[in-house]
Q: What sequence folds into this?
């Protein structure tokens, strides 16, 4: 079967690899339909790493995906052959203290789909995942919408950690797919006033269509001064959705005393810095986000019921053979791209 491997910085190659087989009692064999191109994929593509996670070539990446069940192990009960499913890319051990406490997203012995040295990714025609990572979606939900469940589940978890909604004043720095998903999750949670930033005009336009009350480009205006002019007391919660030092600094300036900064963006490097004097004087709470916890099913429900519409995120579609083109487009922010989808099935 076909699979797409990273073979160097900004280099991919389509290779033939053996067909996966059901071996374990909880295995689910999936026929992959659609794979989303994620910002973390771009870190591996452009830099070959995220922090200590360094690619050893060749490596198969990709983790946002949807497909159909082809076969299951003897102990699988939650999904059946023929089901259309989305994948939670986290594989938890179920034995460590974190798993026993219910915090499977911080499992001490976890493996993650497409993460270097852990589990090969989803940019392939078929793959095996454990039953616990597979969630059925309704027949009415397209595979493209199903693939958006994964990033939206992260946004739902970030929103819960930040408690954005219900009259809150909210900042979202970055209007890429995750920032826009956080916007949708915040608006879903309740009436809140959202201030959104980005460097790209088309993404700010999408943010406004998703319900952002204000949008600004930090290269064209002093976004901190403008937001604080509208909200002199500061914002209740600010979501950092870029992974850059500049936006981390802006978060600390924007958040109100005793407010919360939620770090959703993933920096390529190992370290970021914080102005400790400002953090101390304002008693700012810094909340990191480790993917999501028990938010896949709520994401499926919200998208399936039409309570959230993320269709505008998907701006470009490619085939598996066009993966290199898709990655270059996203890496270089060309053609007003927001989210690119790779359709593994020719007719998807």
A:
């Amino acid at each position: 079967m076909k699979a797409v491997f990273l073979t160097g910085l900004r280099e991919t190659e389509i290779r033939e690899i053996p067909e996966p087989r059901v071996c374990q009692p909880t295995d689910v064999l999936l026929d992959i339909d659609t794979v989303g191109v994620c910002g973390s994929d771009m870190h591996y593509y452009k830099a070959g790493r995220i922090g200590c996670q360094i690619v050893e070539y060749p490596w198969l990446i990709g983790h946002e995906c949807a497909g159909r069940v082809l076969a299951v192990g003897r102990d699988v009960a939650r999904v059946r052959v023929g089901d259309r499913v989305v994948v939670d890319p986290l594989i938890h051990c179920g034995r460590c203290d974190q798993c026993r406490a219910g915090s499977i997203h911080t499992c001490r012995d976890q493996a993650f789909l497409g993460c270097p040295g852990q589990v090969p990714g989803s940019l392939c025609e078929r793959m095996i995942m454990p039953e616990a990572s597979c969630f059925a979606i309704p027949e009415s939900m397209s595979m493209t919408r199903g693939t958006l469940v994964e990033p939206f589940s992260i946004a739902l978890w970030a929103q819960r950690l930040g408690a954005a909604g219900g009259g809150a004043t909210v900042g979202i720095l970055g209007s890429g797919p995750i920032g826009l998903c956080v916007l949708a999750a915040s608006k879903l949670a309740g009436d809140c006033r959202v201030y959104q930033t980005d460097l790209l005009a088309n993404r700010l336009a999408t943010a406004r269509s998703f319900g952002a009350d204000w949008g600004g480009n930090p290269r064209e205006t002093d976004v901190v001064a403008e937001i604080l002019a509208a909200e002199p007391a500061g914002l209740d919660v600010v979501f950092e959705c870029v992974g850059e030092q500049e936006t981390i600094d802006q978060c600390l300036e924007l958040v109100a005393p005793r407010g919360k900064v939620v770090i959703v963006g993933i920096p390529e490097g190992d370290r970021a810095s914080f102005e400790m004097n400002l953090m101390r004087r304002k008693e700012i709470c810094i909340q990191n986000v480790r993917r999501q916890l028990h938010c896949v099913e709520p994401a499926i429900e919200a998208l399936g019921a039409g309570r959230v519409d993320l269709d505008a995120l998907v701006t470009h579609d490619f085939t598996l053979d066009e993966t290199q083109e898709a990655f270059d487009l996203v890496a270089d922010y060309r053609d007003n791209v927001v989210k690119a989808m790779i359709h593994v099935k020719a007719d998807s």
